[in-house]
Design goal:
This protein has about 190 residues and is α+β, with helices and mostly antiparallel strands. The protein is built from two helices and ten strands; from the N terminus they run E-H-E-E-H-E-E-E-E-E-E-E.
Length: about 190
């Protein structure tokens, strides 16, 4: 059950959260509200039609008291292959604001649209799929250290990285498989 004033985070293909000390693979959070799920699906279709992917969507409903009672703050993170620029974020902002105004009729809406950024903290295992070919860092609990490499593959069990050979500094021919159970945290390292 989601209470007013508490952020609701929705994820479809990407996003999520860290729980405990290991990475999870949770394409969609279960505690999201039914009306938020429908809104997410609607916004995702619009954003996908613009050639981008919705990485993360946060909806914050204000409490009944305070500076802006009844306002809604929406934060969307979008991504496309290559560089996600200001123009992309602006297009998404203009494209989804009318749907948000219909969904939250009579409420003041604050909408923030951003790209994942060059050092994005990867919050969920399902988010890796969009960063294949990019450099990522994973903090591993089995060795208590970071492993950095080019992300080759990702699925619901873990990731595969091409890591640099310590001696030569070149990418290793043998990819390193890292299961989510031993990833405590991860970040995009562009």
């Amino acid at each position: 059950m989601v209470k007013k004033g508490v952020p609701t985070t929705l994820f479809f293909v990407l996003g999520g959260y860290l729980a405990g000390r290991t990475m999870l693979y949770t394409p969609r959070r279960l505690e999201s509200r039914d009306d938020d799920e429908a809104l997410y699906d609607s916004l995702e279709k619009v954003i996908r039609g613009m050639g981008l992917t919705l990485v993360e969507l946060n909806i914050f409903r204000s409490k009944t008291r305070g500076s802006n009672p009844g306002s809604v703050q929406v934060k969307a993170v979008v991504y496309r292959e290559g560089i996600t620029g200001v123009e992309d974020c602006s297009r998404v902002h203009r494209g989804i604001l009318p749907r948000l105004e219909l969904a939250f009729e009579g409420k003041e809406i604050y909408l923030e649209v951003s790209s994942p950024g060059i050092n994005r903290i990867i919050k969920d295992g399902s988010e890796f799929a969009h960063y294949i070919g990019k450099v990522v860092k994973c903090y591993r609990t089995d060795i208590s250290d970071w492993s950095e490499g080019i992300l080759c593959a990702a699925d619901d069990k873990g990731v595969v990285l091409k890591v640099k050979d310590e001696k030569t500094g070149l990418a290793s021919e043998l990819p390193m498989e890292i299961p989510f159970e031993i990833i405590a945290k991860a970040r995009l390292n562009v």
